[in-house]
Design goal:
The chain has 90 residues and is mostly helical. It contains 3 helices and 2 strands, in the order ββααα. 57% of the residues lie in helices and 4% in strands. The radius of gyration is 15 Å and the shape is globular.
């Protein structure tokens, strides 16, 4: 979860990732998101779309981490292997 730094009328600071949740899982998701933004077309498209809308890199990376969690949950729930063309199959 990105945490935005703002204080009344002062200037906005850079967003950072929240430290809530297990640090080990957060670290694994961070590294997986770094790799996925380069090689997974769905994560890459979302990351670049958020950057184009003016989000900072860390917020976009947090969204990539969340997308990876959703993809993993979908694979575990359906018990089917990941399909890169899942959006096209609809």
């Amino acid at each position: 979860v990105p945490v935005e730094r703002q204080s009344g009328s002062s200037l906005f600071g850079r967003a950072r990732l929240s430290k809530a949740g297990p640090a080990r899982i957060r670290a694994m998701l961070y590294m997986a998101a770094i790799t996925a933004k380069r090689y997974n077309p769905h994560v890459k498209a979302q990351y670049e779309r958020l950057l184009a809308r003016g989000k900072c890199k860390m917020s976009a990376l947090g969204a990539a981490m969340r997308k990876l969690v959703h993809l993993c949950f979908g694979v575990l729930k359906t018990r089917q292997p990941y399909q890169a063309d899942y959006a096209v199959a609809r």
